[in-house]
Amino acid sequence: MSRRLLRAAACLAAALAAATPVSPASAAPEPGRDVGQLLTELQGLYQKAEEATEAYNATEAALAARQGEERRLTSELGAAHGALARHRAAAGRLARAQYQGSHDALPRYARMLLSGDPQALLEQRRVAAREAAHRAAVIQRLTRSAAQAGALAAKAREELRSQADLVARRKAQKEEVTGRLQQVERLLASLTTDELAALSARERAVTAGAQRDLLASGRLGTATRTPTAAGGAAVRYATAQIGKPYVWGAEGPGSFDCSGLTSQAWAAAGRTIPRTSQEQWAQLTRIPLNQLRPGDLVVYFPKATHVALYLGDGKVVQAPRPGARVKVSPIAANPLLGAVRPDPDGAPLAHYAPPELPPSADAGEGEGGTGDHTGYSAEEAPAPAPTSAR
User: Fold this and answer.
1) Residue 306 is part of a domain; what is its CATH number?
2) Residue range 72-128, pLDDT digits in tens
3) What whole-number distance in Å separates Cα of residue 35 and Cα of residue 33?
């Protein structure tokens, strides 16, 4: 089924769902296909696709770091080669001077016996000693420069090998993501209009129930907290992206994946954080849920494969999944792992006015924001970053 047909089917399902309240009887799927099992299968496929996406993102970040290191090494290697050439030229001049002077040089003892001024001869010997020290220093610099250039060349070759390995890994991961997305696409294409409507209703009900349970548990606490100046800036950036499509591997400005949105929100606030949700969870300061303040990051799933930015009042802004758009969601929209804070040393603002959200901020699924499950093309992949041509 084409992308357009899939989205049309989803919009039709949403329209039907809006026109008639969904009940177990009215939205029953075809016999033999339980809507709960379908939802579990679909969510599992989405999660696997996002795991593959974050692995791709990690490789992309590692490749960018390697390329930066290669550029640094190339620059240092050029400077080392220049220094080596200069030291070789200086050593060559010394060798030529020593060769030319050896033809008429008498032994020091003979020059001392023939000299009419022993004091002058001693001065000449001191000058000769200084020259010898100079020659030794030139040879030492030449040797050191040769060793440095050799070491840098070896490191540069190692960087190129590492880049080649990363490029191959990235290619395999891109193929895995594409394969995972095609699995989702095939499942969506097999669903009837009633099944799509039932899935939408079931997912909304599951999310609402999880949110109620979380709030009732007291894990979020009851205190209202304000963000830091940087946290407020991150919130404003993230909410300004509402409605932009999820595209795996994307980090703006026209589209985002989950960690692309959070990393760019904090970059806009002046703080660089890791690119992937796993590294954000691993490297940033962890905080209990009852200490959340706007701008903090909420991490989901046991492998930390999804992340959102906390807005306050039990809500997050997130790039949910393929086929969806950046939206506002209940914090319990996915299984919670924990929360992290990019600016633990920042002071909360005394006064904070949350950004005004568009009326459809929580309707971020599909092209028009009207359905929960829309089709998308597995070809919606980011173009690979340019790599070194060497």
Assistant:
1) 3.90.1720.10
2) 656 665 665 666 566 566 556 656 666 655 554 545 555 555 555 656 656 666 666
3) 6
**pLDDT tens-place string over residues 77-89:** 566 566 656 656 6
- Say how far apart CA 69 and CA 159 lie, in whole Å: 8
In a domain, 349, yes or no: no
- pTM recorded for the entire structure: 0.67
Tell me, yes or no, whether 213 lies in a domain: no
Task: Identify which of 137, 26, 23, 143 has the alpha carbon closest to the alpha carbon of residue 80.
Answer: 143
Cβ–Cβ < 8 Å for 257, 57: yes
| Nearest to 96, CA basis, from 130, 135, 145, 147 | 135
Phi, psi of 251, deg, nearest 5: -135, 40
